């Protein structure tokens, strides 16, 4: 994988990726074209298969991938959430996996920084036949309150109404955005937050926070895995259950441990 031109082009495009969340060579749009050509319409399983096929054989993409995707599948299936929030739509792959296993009456709200990515995701979701179950919102939680207000005013996000969060966007934003969610009190005891790429490329502040909160406000399971679409670079997915917030102050001090998942490579 590391010698493939698509991966080398991805590395060359990291600066562009950091600014726009697109590699800069058109691969995101090419993915939508590939899915609409090679996956059966209204077949979510076949759309997921086609995306994985594209990523293995055509162009490397930074979605959660098939290996870590199974961890996300299991977390959603176990939580049975009705209202879900995703931070980082990209091309819509993780939203497909979430929609496939979430309850029939559930709705996923997905926040995406780049409107071009949001358009790619909508096209893929519509081809899969699940577009009406996912609401994509162009923005960030750090846009002077506009997206937060949209979630609250238009989509009725209110204290205790959010069951599940999947975080897979700018790594430095993991902890600040979680704090914004906590400040709005949208979570309730039992809400689940899953975070990708905690080891690679890494979200050390978020990981330290969850370690400090273990057994206090949060209980976290650490799932060792690999970065998407290869078996060399190791990664970690955190699955954290919210226990409640006894006071207004969230500290990053406390027991420095996480509960290790019994399966090292799900």
UniProtKB/TrEMBL annotation:
Keyword Metal-binding in annotation: no
Domain of life: Bacteria
BP terms from Gene Ontology: methylation
Chain spans, region Disordered: 245-266
Top-level EC class: transferase
Record CDD domains: AdoMet_MTases (cd02440)
Protein name: O-methyltransferase
Molecular functions (GO terms): O-methyltransferase activity
SUPFAM superfamilies in the cross-refs: S-adenosyl-L-methionine-dependent methyltransferases
Keyword terms, alphabetized: Methyltransferase, S-adenosyl-L-methionine, Transferase
EC number in record: 2.1.1.-
């Amino acid at each position: 994988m590391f010698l493939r031109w698509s991966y080398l082009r991805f590395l060359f495009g990291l600066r562009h990726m950091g600014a726009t969340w697109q590699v800069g060579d058109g691969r995101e749009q090419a993915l939508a074209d590939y899915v609409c050509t090679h996956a059966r319409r209204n077949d979510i399983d076949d759309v997921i298969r086609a995306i994985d096929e594209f990523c293995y054989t055509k162009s490397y993409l930074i979605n959660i991938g098939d290996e870590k995707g199974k961890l996300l599948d299991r977390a959603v299936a176990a939580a049975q959430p009705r209202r879900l929030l995703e931070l980082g739509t990209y091309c819509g792959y993780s939203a497909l996996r979430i929609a496939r296993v979430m309850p029939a009456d559930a709705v996923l709200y997905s926040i995406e920084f780049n409107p071009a990515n949001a358009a790619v995701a909508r096209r893929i979701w519509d081809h899969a036949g699940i577009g009406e179950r996912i609401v994509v919102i162009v923005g960030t939680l750090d846009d002077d309150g506009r997206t937060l207000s949209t979630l609250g005013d238009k989509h009725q996000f209110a204290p205790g109404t959010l069951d599940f969060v999947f975080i897979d966007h700018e790594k430095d934003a993991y902890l600040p955005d979680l704090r914004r969610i906590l400040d709005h009190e949208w979570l309730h005891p039992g809400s689940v937050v899953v975070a990708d790429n905690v080891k690679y490329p890494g979200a050390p502040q978020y990981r330290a926070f969850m370690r400090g909160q273990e057994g206090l406000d949060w209980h976290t399971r650490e799932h060792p895995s690999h970065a998407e679409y290869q078996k060399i670079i190791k990664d970690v997915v955190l699955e954290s259950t919210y226990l409640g917030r006894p006071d207004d102050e969230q500290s990053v001090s406390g027991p420095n441990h996480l509960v290790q998942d019994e399966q090292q490579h799900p």
